[in-house]
Amino acid sequence: MAVRLSAMSLMLGTLLLALASISTTSLAARVIVGDSAHWTFGYNYTEWANKSSPFYQNDTLVFMYDPPNSTTFPHSVYLMKNLRSFIACDLRKAKLVANVLQGGGDGFEFVLKKRKPHYFACGERNGIHCSVGLMKFAVLPLRRCHG
Ligand SMILES: *[C@@H]1O[C@H](CO)[C@@H](O)[C@H](O)[C@H]1NC(C)=O
Ligand SMILES: *[C@@H]1O[C@H](CO)[C@@H](O)[C@H](O)[C@H]1NC(C)=O
Ligand SMILES: *[C@@H]1O[C@H](CO)[C@@H](O)[C@H](O)[C@H]1NC(C)=O
Ligand SMILES: *[C@@H]1O[C@H](CO)[C@@H](O)[C@H](O)[C@H]1NC(C)=O
C-alpha cells in the first residue's frame, strides 16, 4: 500500500512538473522576426512589428539570416541608443548584439527582458540596410498579465 501510494505521488509529481513546464514555456512567445521573410533587405519591419505587436516581457525575438557568401549580403543586429538615432539610422552609439555570422542555423535569439523601448536595426553598409533596406523596428515589451 505504502509503495503504491508513493508511486502514485511520484506520478502526480511528474505530471505537475510537466504541466508547470508547459505553462512557463507557453507564456513567453518565440517570434521569428519578419516571419517567413526572416531578417532581410527591403522587407518592411515597421509594418511587421506593428502587425505582430503587442510583445511581452520575456518574449524571444529570433533573427534569422544566412552568413554572407558571394551571393548573400551580410546582415547583423544592433540596438540603437535612442529614438533619434533609430529614426536617423545613425549607428555611432549603437550596440552590436549579433554579428554577421550569428543569424545562421536556428537564428539569433534575443530575449526581451526589460520593459523599455528596444530599437533594433541592421548595422550593415553604414546604415543603408537600416534606411533604404527598412531593416529596423521598435518594440516596447509589455508586462504580461497572469491568468
Ligand atoms: C512601412 O510600413 C509603415 C507602416 O505601415 C509605413 O508607414 C511606411 O510607409 C512603409 N514604408 C515603406 C517604404 O513602404
Ligand atoms: C498599425 O496597424 C494598425 C492596424 O492594425 C493601423 O491602424 C495603424 O495605423 C498601424 N500603425 C502604423 C504606424 O503603421
Ligand atoms: C522573466 O524571466 C526571468 C528569468 O527567467 C524571470 O526571473 C522573470 O520573473 C520573468 N519575468 C516575467 C515578467 O515573466
Ligand atoms: C550562399 O548562401 C546561400 C544561403 O545560405 C546559399 O543558398 C547559396 O548556395 C550560397 N552560395 C554560395 C556561392 O556558396
TrEMBL record:
It comes from the Eukaryota. The keyword Repeat does not apply. PROSITE patterns: PHYTOCYANIN. Pfam families: Cu_bind_like (PF02298). The keyword Ribonucleoprotein does not apply. InterPro entries: Cupredoxin, Phytocyanin_dom. Residues 29-143 form the Phytocyanin domain. Keywords: Signal. Residues 1-28 form the signal peptide. GO terms for molecular function: electron transfer activity. This is (wild Malaysian banana) hypothetical protein. It comes from Musa acuminata subsp. malaccensis (Wild banana).
